[in-house]
Amino acid sequence: MKLLPKIETKYWVSLFVASVFGADLGDFISDYLHLGNFNGLPFLAAFLALIFIVEENSRWHSYAFFWATVIVIRAAATNIGDGFHSFNISFAVSIPLLAFLLLLATIRYQAANRNKPVQDNIINVDAFYWVCMILAGTLGTLIGDCSSFVLGFGTLGTTAVYGAGFCLMLFLGYKCDLLLQPFYYWGIVALIRSSGTGAGDFLSHEVFGLPLGTAITGLVFVLWTAFCYRIQPDTALNSMTQREK
């Protein structure tokens, strides 16, 4: 992508807001639109491909492409995570499985970017990055649902517990300069996804209802990212493009 956000405080907040909205959007597609956990995935895949094609061929450089990709992947991860229930696969199997797959993907991502130094606090984004993102989102969906409905945390408890966890990891990451280390980075993302699952379920299933909850979390996401990430001039380049020169 031509323009990528720096890994800073507003990035992590945006990722949490995106996680809440993406969780609700996934439920909206499967439950409210009655597409189920799998029938909506081809539409999400097509929309994801469209984002990549438009971004690649557009002279309009904007952070919107990155965040739109995050939302689509998060919604798909929600449906994939919920889809394990359709096959009666227990959390005792699905959570370790997804954790193992995320570990493998992170190792592959790290190997692919070993000789690509991070500059300006902008993490390298490639195909392996997006594979890790969907795996972390699916793992977060499973952990969030298990904590809320099986372990008895409740949706608010899940939001608070994993929210405190990723805040602690952020604090330690800033102190020890670990945030851009792949294993640490994806650990934080998984915790954010877990907390976002609890928050999304609380807002859309216990407070507003699914249609209104999805609309509200979507509006908050759009307003927040618009406030934090403004459209850049056509001459803007991300650090990856600059390194290619």
TrEMBL record:
Keywords: Membrane, Transmembrane, Transmembrane helix. It comes from Ephemeroptericola cinctiostellae. It comes from the Bacteria. The chain crosses the membrane at residues 12-29, 35-53, 60-77, 89-107, 127-143, 149-171, 183-202, 208-229. This is Membrane-anchored protein.
